[in-house]
Amino acid sequence: MENEKNNQSIVNAAMVASGFLAYYVSSTLFETFAGMFGAVARWHAVEIYKHGIPVGFGLLIFLLMFLSKNVHVFLDEAIVEVRKVVWPSRKDTVAMTIVCCVMVVVAGIGFGLFDLLASQLVKMFVN
Fold first, then answer.
1. Domain identity same for 46 and 106
2. Is 46 helix (H, G, I), strand (E, B) or coil?
3. Which one of 17, 19, 25, 127 has the lowest number of neighbouring Cβ atoms within 10 Å?
């Protein structure tokens, strides 16, 4: 019972975050399109449209998600699956990060040497 209540609060927080994300994206797109198209710029100049359209879109996305049973089921199942994940320890994470950084450096040196040899080979053929 406690776990279901906790899952529901996470689901609700995810839906609210999705609404804010939809607001931000639509606001950014509206501002971008206002710079590109004159008709959109005229709408963007009116405060009620400038703020109302993104807020309305964010609320619409939130309501569509909140009222959809499929979204609730999907998010609840996703939370249950994430709880099953066995996360690596700090020691393992640090070790894997060091290995990754070393491999990037080794690959960079290898590609640099290949580029140097290839450029010298091209210079030889050109001259």
1. no
2. coil
3. 127
| Measured distance CA(98)–CA(101) in Å, rounded | 5
pTM (predicted TM-score): 0.65
What is the DSSP code (8-state) at residue 79? Answer: H
Q: Please say whether the beta carbons of 35 and 8 come within 8 A.
A: no
Q: Which domain holds residue 5?
A: 1-85
Residue 73 CB coordination number (10 Å)? 11
3-state secondary structure at position 42: helix
| Residues in Cβ contact with 44 at an 8 Å cutoff, skipping those fewer than 6 apart | 30, 31, 33, 34, 50
pLDDT in tens, the chain (127 residues): 566 677 888 889 999 999 999 999 999 999 999 999 988 889 889 989 999 999 999 999 999 999 999 998 999 999 989 989 999 999 999 999 999 999 999 999 999 999 999 999 999 998 8
Residues 6+ apart with CB under 8 A from 14: 75
